[in-house]
Fold this protein.
Amino acid sequence: MNTWIDIEVCDNCDELFKVVRHEFPTSGTKEIEPVNCPHCGHRQYELATSGWWETYPLTEDEVRNMRANKKMK
């Protein structure tokens, strides 16, 4: 199993959140499911996957570190 963590900015509320993706390295049918902001519930995008994902708000420390590294405004 492969795991990725992506950082997103919600198109609706501008809050930061992370998407933790767990993928099985298999070929075959992938399901398309929405990725929703954990702050406001906005459908950010859809993801086709052979695994699953979870969304979480960033902690205050994570937001502070992102801004300190100038990756985000």
In short: Strands lie at 2-9, 16-23, 31-36, 43-49, 52-57. Helices lie at 60-68.
